[in-house]
Design a protein that fits this description.
The structure is a single chain. This protein is of the alpha+beta class. The protein has one domain. It contains 8 helices and 16 strands.
């Protein structure tokens, strides 16, 4: 998979303030997506709630639908960042895995309340658009004679063709209501029962840290309907938290009649 060099994310100025101040990107559960189908599977209900995503587009040209849907009456902003945007950590001595690079710190991987998966492989996926119900509502449970596999990797990768204007790429990982210790010690049937009954995680969002070098390459486009006051706020945020970021006005500002 050839991933884009840069990706784009449309949001409001409030969210930009949090991204700049905290230097993090928020991941939301599939249960909180605008596409209500994404959380569903064919055989394990709304198990997609254990999948956490951050949604971006590869479309460099400004998108009127994106400005309408994801910003406050076109008064939001669009963020441009390198697709390899998240900070990586060296994690040592996790069972037989030895040392590896991860988007998650050691203490996050060993959280006593849940397990993050995958913790060491690429998390960027290109969304595929289809009307094939077997892909939109995948079978997650795979039963064999002496074991069962739960294929959560099938979730969060497909959307109906109605959404194909998004040209979406997303960062995705799973958080299961089972600790690493429980995975190592308990009967797998215990884990399966927890997932089948939809045991709650206690969280519906997660944050990953942005890499410092990626942050320096950030570009921010002001929405077509932003005011002079909005521009002052954005420029003030940039000067305070990320002075190397560049701020641009929308190419659509003088060619679209916004009501």
């Amino acid at each position: 998979m050839n991933k884009p060099e840069y990706l784009y994310h449309y949001t409001n100025i409030d969210t930009l303030a949090l991204i700049l101040k905290n230097k993090t990107i928020r991941f939301n559960s599939l249960s909180n997506m605008d596409d209500l189908e994404e959380v569903k599977s064919n055989d394990m209900g709304n198990i997609g709630k254990y999948c956490f995503v951050s949604c971006w587009t590869e479309e460099e040209e400004e998108s009127i639908p994106f400005w309408h849907i994801y910003t406050n009456k076109m008064r939001g902003i669009r963020i441009k960042l390198p697709s390899d945007m998240f900070k990586k950590y060296t994690v040592n001595n996790i069972g037989s895995l030895g040392s590896f690079k991860s988007y998650f710190k050691y203490e996050e991987i060993l959280c006593p309340n849940y397990t993050i998966s995958p913790s060491w492989v690429e998390i960027l996926e290109k969304v595929e658009y289809t009307d094939d119900k077997s892909l939109l509502y995948p079978n997650i449970l795979e039963l064999e004679v002496d074991k069962c596999n739960i294929k959560l990797g099938e979730l969060g990768k497909h959307k109906r063709k109605n959404w194909n204007f998004q040209k979406e790429w997303r960062y995705i990982f799973r958080i299961l209501p089972i600790s690493l210790r429980e995975m190592q010690e308990e009967n797998p049937n215990v884990h399966l029962r927890k997932l089948l009954k939809g045991e709650e995680l206690g969280i519906d969002s997660y944050f990953l840290n942005i890499d410092d070098k990626a942050l320096e390459k950030m570009e921010i486009t002001l929405g077509p309907n932003t005011t002079d006051g909005d521009k002052i706020i954005v420029e003030s945020l940039v000067n305070t938290y990320n002075p190397l970021a560049k701020v641009y006005s929308s190419n659509l500002k003088k060619i679209i009649n916004i009501k």
